C-alpha cells in the first residue's frame, strides 16, 4: 500500500495454521500509521533500518533508533510514527495465533 509518502509492502506471509507476515515499511517525516488491535495473543517485531520510529502502545511512546529492534503485544491499538527529519525504514514481522473455533 502506498499513500502520500508511506509505503508498505508485504514481502511474504502465511495464513495456516497461524498468520505470520514479513513487511517492509517506509514513513516520511511527520507521517504515522494507527494500527488496530490484532487477535488476542498477536505479537509484532520491528527492526529499524534507518531513521527513528516512535512506537506508541499501552499508552506509552518509545523511541526505536536505527539498528534497534523491539517486540510487543499487538492485541491492542498501536501507532508507528516518524517524528524525525529523515525517512523511516523498518522491517516488521506480525504473528497472530490461529483462531480457535467456538465449541
Question: What does this molecule look like?
Answer:
This protein is mainly β and 103 residues long. It has one domain: Jelly Rolls (Sandwich). The protein contains no helices and ten strands. The strands form two sheets. The chain has a six-stranded antiparallel sheet with strand order 1-2-3-10-5-8, with no helix packed on it. The chain is globular and about 40 Å long. The model has no long low-confidence stretch (mean pLDDT 89). It comes from Nonomuraea recticatena. Pfam families: Cupin_2.
Which helices and strands, and how do they pair?
Elements: E1 2-3, E2 6-14, E3 19-27, E4 32-35, E5 43-50, E6 53-57, E7 60-64, E8 69-73, E9 78-81, E10 88-96
Antiparallel strand pairs: 1-2, 2-3, 3-10, 4-9, 5-8, 5-10, 6-7, 6-9
Strand order of the largest sheet: 1-2-3-10-5-8
- From the helix content, strand content and strand pairing, which structural class follows? mainly beta
Gross morphology is globular
Q: Which architecture per CATH?
A: Sandwich
Listing every helix as H and every strand as E from the N terminus to the C terminus, the arrangement reads EEEEEEEEEE
CATH top-level class: Mainly Beta
In this structure, how is the largest beta sheet organized?
Answer: 6 strands, antiparallel
The value of Rg in angstroms is 14 Å
Domain Cupin type-2: 24-94
Protein name: Cupin type-2 domain-containing protein
Organism: Nonomuraea recticatena
Pfam family, one: Cupin_2
Amino acid at each position: 500500500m502506498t499513500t502520500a509518502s508511506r509505503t508498505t509492502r508485504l514481502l511474504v506471509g502465511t495464513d495456516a495454521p497461524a498468520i505470520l507476515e514479513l513487511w517492509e515499511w517506509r514513513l516520511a517525516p511527520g507521517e504515522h500509521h494507527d494500527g488496530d488491535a490484532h487477535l488476542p495473543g498477536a505479537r509484532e517485531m520491528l527492526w529499524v533500518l534507518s531513521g527513528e520510529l516512535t512506537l506508541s502502545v499501552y499508552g506509552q511512546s518509545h523511541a526505536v533508533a536505527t539498528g534497534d529492534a523491539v517486540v510487543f503485544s499487538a492485541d491492542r491499538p498501536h501507532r508507528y510514527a516518524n517524528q524525525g527529519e529523515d525517512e523511516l525504514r523498518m522491517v516488521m514481522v506480525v504473528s497472530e495465533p490461529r483462531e480457535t473455533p467456538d465449541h
